[in-house]
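Suppose you are handed only two things: the residues of a chain and a line of SMILES describing flavin-adenine dinucleotide. What would the bound structure be? This form records exactly that question and the answer produced for it, so the two can be stored side by side and reused later without any lookup.

QUESTION INPUTS
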Amino acid sequence: MSEDLLIVGGGAIGCAIAWEMAGEGWKVRLLDRQKPGAEASWAAAGMLSPSAEAPHLPPLVPLARAALDLYPGFVEQLESIAGIHTDFERQGSLVVFFGGRANHTQGEFLAALARAGLDGEPLTGEEARRREPSLNPEVAAAVWFAEEASVDPRALGRALRAAAERRGVAIEAGAEVFRALIERGRCRGVATAAGEISAARVVIAAGCYSAAIEGVARYAPTRPVRGQMAALDGGAARPRTMIRSERGYLVPRPDGRVFAGSTLENAGFDKSVTAGGLRKILNGAAEIAPSLENAVILETWAGLRPDSPDHLPILGPTEIENLSIATGHYRDGILLAPITARLARAWLLGQPPEVSLDPFSPFRFASPAP
Ligand SMILES: Cc1cc2nc3c(=O)[nH]c(=O)nc-3n(C[C@H](O)[C@H](O)[C@H](O)COP(=O)(O)OP(=O)(O)OC[C@H]3O[C@@H](n4cnc5c(N)ncnc54)[C@H](O)[C@@H]3O)c2cc1C
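ANSWER OUTPUT
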């Protein structure tokens, strides 16, 4: 029997959409070419920080703010259905500045944020250290974001999959989709190694691999951007808030670990952890919080962010009837998962979206269909 909705990709984005639409009573099938949730969504740091990309990507701000507003309700519902704790915590975040030009850079950062429609609280170095004693004494200025939060991305993935399955979503591992089946301007399903699968609607949420699916690249010309990470045993003097500097960031976890990140590298689909990448992360971490110089390294890993040519997500229907796209979330897919699910529900049900989809249209890269 044909599904109402077939989703390609079982990361945070695909699973959030599956869960949302199963909640509408739709029959949903999700295909992943490997174990779902083992790609970017597994590798993320879990920061839920609208301020992080705001200065460079102002169109993202309405989406990011709406996502952060949705998060407490989103995780509460997921946790109660799945019985899995996601470690959502609103611990706030600090952006810190070093050196003689710190006040100037702080001012420029606040001005860029204001242009993007966000504000933060300016702090002196001293005020920042009162809030976060682990900070380097050389931090000369900072900006505080009280609302920002974090989540454990791996636990979130487990919770999303379990909650989706409880709502009846059929999740299949080891099912690689090669092609969207397009005939006379309509998508009727997908082609896999095991044969064709029909569905009334298809959503492509295959992260940085979306462009490799035949028929999809013209709407979703995704590319991978590698990010390396390290988990440190933070010790008693570990940071309690999230902290970002020009050279890295720290995300403290409730269990005492501190995630240190990250690199932004064009390394193709290679997920290696490299000496140079780790050196950069660890130097950045110790510059922010010098006590981490002695921290034990617990784990290192790398993942591939799904980037798009303008670094904005690609969301919405294409001109191929019944084929839509939800990818390109780049550095913010964990934050944006709940709002992406809500927007997908709107376009799939033909309702108005709660945030304008115009900046994220899958048409913006495409030449007209042949
Ligand atoms: C190091 C790092 C740190 C990050 N930190 C943060 C952060 O702090 N906050 C934040 O919000 N975001 C962060 N991100 C970004 C975030 O991880 C991504 O934007 C998000 O996970 C993208 O989710 P996704 O579901 O689109 O993609 P993915 O999680 O990559 O999932 C795509 C899925 O599609 C499957 N797939 C691919 N091709 C096919 C196919 N042909 N057929 C079937 N299945 C297929 C894959 O197997 C995979 O399971 C970070 C990313 C990295 C790498």
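WHAT STANDS OUT: The domain at 93-148+224-307 is CATH 3.30.9.10 (D-Amino Acid Oxidase; Chain A, domain 2). The helical segments are 12-22, 40-43, 61-82, 102-116, 125-131, 153-166, 275-288, 333-349.
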